[in-house]
Amino acid sequence: MSVTVVPGLRALAVATGLVAHESRSLLRVTGADRTAFLQGMLSANVLRLGAGQHAPALFLTVQGRIVAICEVLLESDSILLDVAAEQAAALRRGLEAFVVADDVEIDETDERAALIGGPFAEEALGHVLGSAIKALPVGHHALAAWSGGSLRVVRGVFASVGDWRLWGSGESIAAVCAALREVGACEVGPEAAEIARILRGLPRVGVDWDESTLAPEVPALAAAIAGDKGCYLGQEVVERVAARGRVNWLVAALVLEQPAPRGAALLVKGEPAGELTSVAVSPLDGGIVALARVRRSAVDEASELVVAGGGRAHLLAPQS
């Protein structure tokens, strides 16, 4: 099989990869009731976060369906919600619908995001932003002085192709990305970022899941659901699935024996069992990795899972 070389993808695996124009939005939540309000809305345990810490979260419907995946960043005077740009409007609209008598305001900032990853990303950031950033623990965020202003540095971002996210004005992000390139960071374009996403088994809204998807149907998002908190929107469905039963469908990560297109049917003993939603070939070893919407019963019979048109499909990792 021939393997297409995609510029920047290798850097995420063995060097330093930079996504200079990451499509993210940053919502700022203020008001005296902000913490209690978000504790009741999101799946993360917001009350357990201290200033400078962050955690992944889901915003669900009452029926437990996914509206948005976000990162909750706690500041001393506000809470930031880092969310994919295509989910930002739904997240803001959904939260605001529940603001009644609460002292809560939600606004979108004009900050821009960049992502950096790879085994030498920490070293590159240390060169550009100083040694204090290298000491930032996973799960924390901090402001770093930069060109007369500041950048927000977030370490350990969830469900991401990189390990660090930078937030700042458009000018600041452009300047810091230029500085990172000077110390060896390699640009990762949209095609490379998409392949990296699939190879890491990260589901994408509108591709691998949509507004009809239940949170428990996506095992890759389990870390965004805190098991040590009280009620939140959609919790009843999530807990019911965990305690008494299983979902009928899963978004599963697979390894394919042969190339197959997105949308190809999956079969078990000749019967329909799902379909491929994302497919990528690794430029490093030629392995074919896919995400798929699969019947839960088919996961139990994974040894019989095949792709219509030829070739077996193997679960990449155990599914919940």
Jot down its keywords:
32% strand, 6-stranded mixed beta sheet, 320 residues, 6-stranded antiparallel beta sheet
How would you describe this structure to a colleague?
With 320 residues, this protein is α+β, with helices and mostly antiparallel strands. 24% of the residues lie in helices and 32% in strands. Strands 8-9-10-7-1-11 form a six-stranded mixed beta sheet. The protein has a six-stranded antiparallel beta sheet with strand order 16-13-14-15-12-17. Strands 3-4-5-2-6 form a five-stranded antiparallel beta sheet. Strand 4 (66-74) and strand 5 (79-84) form a beta hairpin.
Figure out the total of helices: 9
> What oligomeric state do these chains adopt?
single chain
**Biggest sheet strand line-up:** 8-9-10-7-1-11
Average pLDDT, rounded to a whole number, is 92
In the CATH hierarchy, the third-tier topology of the domain at 17-184 is known as Gyrase A, domain 2
Largest sheet: 6 strands, mixed
Gap between N and C termini: 33 Å
What is the CA-atom radius of gyration, in angstroms?
20 Å
CATH class label of the domain at 17-184: Alpha Beta
Helix content: 10-25%
Class by helix and strand content? alpha+beta
Number of strands: 17
Portion of residues in beta strands equals 25-35%
Question: What is the name of the CATH superfamily of the domain at 17-184?
Answer: Probable tRNA modification gtpase trme, domain 1
Low-confidence stretches: none
